[in-house]
Amino acid sequence: MRDQIVAAAQTHFRHHGYDKTTVSELAKAIGISKAYIYKFFASKQAIGEVICSDCLEEIDREISAAVASTDHPPEQIRRLFQALVTSSVRLFSEARNLYEIAVAAASDNWPPVVLYEKRVRALIEDIVVAGRQRGDFERKTPLDEVCASIYLIIRPYMHPVILKQNLDQVGSAPGLLSSHILRSLAP
Amino acid sequence: MRDQIVAAAQTHFRHHGYDKTTVSELAKAIGISKAYIYKFFASKQAIGEVICSDCLEEIDREISAAVASTDHPPEQIRRLFQALVTSSVRLFSEARNLYEIAVAAASDNWPPVVLYEKRVRALIEDIVVAGRQRGDFERKTPLDEVCASIYLIIRPYMHPVILKQNLDQVGSAPGLLSSHILRSLAP
Q: Are the Cβ atoms of A180 and B156 closer than 8 angstroms?
């Protein structure tokens, strides 16, 4: 039943938007009582969080697969950046409801967002550590400083509101910025 | 009279917002006829452009002064980034009307914005060229590629909508990202 509510909510949000929908309207549209929804979800946001979490897990799977598709750390940086931009643009722009949920999620730092950002940071760190071990990357700069700056450079292409302002850069930015990051990592 | 209309409009926008104000309301508030405003300005946006232009020229003066305060190109990169963030945060957050005008200006690429972005790009290029001549920076990567990627890294801290989403990074980002840029520029 939980999954059915989420699926029905997703369809409803797609047509009517996430922001404007109330739990009452949602219950009416699904054909169940508001109380029944509250048996499974504490709030509209709780439903939104499940949708958001599914969406971010999908991006996570895609970028992890892109990174795993090579064992050359410099190339992993390129693939991570490219996959992240491609997946995010596709998911946020394909359905207005997802974009609205993503904006709410990013603005209020919903738990799935915090988890996702941690995952991306961990992926970056894994690549940098591997690259340092193999001698592909320099080792003088503190690891956390290097990872934090790479994350800051990638972040504008993960965040839904920022990404929307960056859509005209989306074609060239992953390549240009990956090359820039790799120059900064040169031993 | 032109200047007086702009000054009165700025005060009016400060209290009532830019987006919601019409030229009729503006005329009424200033105590002149709508036709008289149209003698000087083709639209509300034309007034907004003057305010926007003044605001961007102020940022431009501050960042140019910051760059001119040293002749060491690596330090110029740091000062440019820091001054840009400090000025932008101050201007966009000090008055709601400026933020609203900045958002409209950035979304629709008003002429003063195009000019301002060109100025920042030119400043970056001047610094990189000087640093290459002095041997501070590497010369292998094509100049336009280096400048484009530095601009892409700085851009999220110039753009009003993006900057608003980045406010929690504003303390550490200029330092971290300047260091990152300088590592990428190392000869």
A: no
Of A150, A166, A177, the CB nearest to B149: A177
Cβ contact, residue pair B176, A138, below 8 Å: no
Task: Name all contacts of B10-19 with Cβ < 8 Å and 24+ positions apart.
Answer: B10/B51, B10/B97, B13/B51, B13/B97, B13/B100, B13/B101, B14/B95, B14/B96, B14/B97, B17/B96, B17/B97, B17/B100, B18/B44, B18/B48, B18/B97, B18/B100, B18/B101, B18/B104, B19/B100, B19/B104
What top-level class would CATH report for the domain B2-40? mainly alpha
Report, at the CATH architecture level, how domain B48-185 is classified.
Orthogonal Bundle (1.10)
What global pTM score does this model have?
Answer: 0.91
Ranges of chain A whose pLDDT falls below 50: none
Q: Is A158 at the interface with chain B, CB within 8 A?
A: no
Domain definitions of chain B by residue range: 2-40, 48-185
Fold of A45-185: Tetracycline Repressor; domain 2 (1.10.357)
What ipTM describes this predicted complex? 0.90
